[in-house]
Specification:
The protein is α/β, with parallel strands linked by helices. The chain has a single domain (2-120), classed as Methylglyoxal synthase-like domain (Rossmann fold, 3-Layer(aba) Sandwich). 50% of the residues lie in helices and 16% in strands. The protein has helices spanning 12-21, 23-28, 35-45, 59-68, 88-100, 109-120, and strands at residues 2-7, 30-33, 49-51, 74-78, 105-106. The chain has a five-stranded parallel sheet with strand order 3-2-1-4-5, with helices on both faces. Helix 1 (12-21) packs across helix 3. The longest helix has 13 residues, at 88-100. The structure holds 1,3-dihydroxyacetonephosphate (13P). Residues 6, 8, 34-37, 54-56, 59-60, 91 line the site of 1,3-dihydroxyacetonephosphate (13P).
């Protein structure tokens, strides 16, 4: 399972907590993340994560490009709906790419939990 993990600053602690909750599953996945999110997951949970560029510097677009060629199976993107982002067009492009290519994309913790629980079933990943 190739999983992309992305969180805006206001959601990074929630992302780390979510990843801790599903640690055994995530340890079996091939993980990629935008730079700062990935750094926290590596440092705080010891996960192996391929860190791409930070979101505002093009990380969302890198994940979108990989997704478009079949290199991403699912995305967890914890967006902060209360804070304007300078790279809003990149964020929209990534979510659009998920819809274009029918790649599952959870944009909040509850949706992400449903996704990760389904993949925690024996034989799912
Ligand atoms: O801005 C982001 C996603 O749009 C996240 O990027 P970072 O993980 O580098 O903070």
């Amino acid at each position: 399972m190739k999983l992309a993990l992305i969180a805006h600053d206001g959601k990074k602690t929630a992302m780390v907590a979510l990843a801790a909750e599903f640690l055994p599953l995530l340890q079996r996945c091939q993980l990629m993340a935008t730079g700062t999110t990935g750094g926290r997951l590596q440092r705080e949970l010891g996960l192996q994560v391929e860190c791409l560029l930070s979101g505002p510097l093009g990380g969302d677009l890198q994940i979108g490009a990989r997704l478009a060629v079949g290199e991403v199976d699912a995305v967890i993107f914890l967006r902060d709906p209360m804070t304007p982002q300078p790279h809003e067009p990149d964020i929209n492009a990534l979510v659009r790419a998920c819809d274009v290519h029918d790649v599952p994309c959870a944009t909040n913790v509850s949706g992400a939990r449903l996704m990760l629980r389904a993949w925690s079933e024996p034989g799912a990943v």
